[in-house]
Amino acid sequence: MSSDHHQSQYTGRVLWLTGLSGAGKSTLAGALYQELVSAGVRAELLDGDGVRENLSKGLGFSKADRDTNVRRIGYVAGLLARHGVTVLVSAISPYAQTRREVLSQLPSAYEIFVDAPLETVTERDVKGLYLKALAGEIAHFTGVSDPYEAPTAPDLHLRTDQLSVAECLERLRPLAGLREEVGV
Ligand SMILES: Nc1ncnc2c1ncn2[C@@H]1O[C@H](COP(=O)(O)OS(=O)(=O)O)[C@@H](OP(=O)(O)O)[C@H]1O
Ligand SMILES: Nc1ncnc2c1ncn2[C@@H]1O[C@H](COP(=O)(O)OP(=O)(O)O)[C@@H](O)[C@H]1O
């Protein structure tokens, strides 16, 4: 969101990865987190699954619950960023208006669209959930029976069906404040 690349040394960046289940958010955020830690950068990873087990335990997948989840993540990301931590968020965060609202309140946030077509994520079916969702066994499953509002002007658009993990990381590094050759 922010175009300010010369931010205060005290304010951490927030890289917000949004996209369908199985698009590659956790894979990319996890790998980038490792690179940041190796480079000595103070970083935190707010991953959909971990957040839902702890910060958002008990929330479901209605629009209201997803929005609450996304707002909570944004709140924690803001607290961390205020203390100079680079924050990687990995959450479907399907609603454009809520993403906009949350990201606009963060001092230096980047919206990253982790994008693969439904066909690809269904083939990957990392957790076996698409099979169940397509069989009608999971109600309100994002992309199948629940909306995903794709970013219209993301700071970075990664087609994970066309790019390798390594190619995606190359594009992510500058946004995370890492030199492009780190980790290559
Ligand atoms: N109905 C429904 N729709 C989408 N996803 C579902 C659903 N039920 C469970 N799951 C699992 O929950 C993970 C998504 O949680 P998030 O917190 O990222 O979602 S959201 O941002 O609040 O919309 C998501 O994990 P990821 O695959 O990591 O995205 C799924 O494993
Ligand atoms: N360019 C890529 N970026 C990220 N993941 C990729 C890419 N290409 C293939 N994959 C694979 O896609 C899957 C993505 O799963 P995951 O990271 O759990 O998605 P999400 O967190 O969005 O639900 C992994 O099995 C990963 O190895």
Descriptors:
184 residues, alpha/beta, 5-stranded parallel sheet, 5 strands, Rossmann fold, 7 helices, binds adenosine-5'-diphosphate, binds 3'-phosphate-adenosine-5'-phosphate sulfate, globular
> What's the mean pLDDT score?
93
Widest β-sheet, arrangement of strands: 2-3-1-4-5
Q: How does the helix and strand content classify structurally?
A: alpha/beta
* CATH class categorisation: Alpha Beta
Q: Which ligands does the model contain, each kind named once?
A: 3'-phosphate-adenosine-5'-phosphate sulfate, adenosine-5'-diphosphate
Helix content: 40-55%
CATH architecture: 3-Layer(aba) Sandwich
Order of helices and strands: EHEHHEHEHHEH
Count of individual domains: 1
List the uncertain runs. Answer: 1-8
Largest sheet: 5 strands, parallel
> What is the CATH superfamily?
P-loop containing nucleotide triphosphate hydrolases
Shape summary: globular
Q: What fraction of the residues are assigned to beta strands by DSSP?
A: 5-15%
CATH topology title: Rossmann fold
Distinct helical segment count? 7
Q: Tell me the span between the first and last alpha carbons.
A: 26 Å
Count all strands and give the number. 5
**Radius of gyration, Cα only, in angstroms?**
16 Å
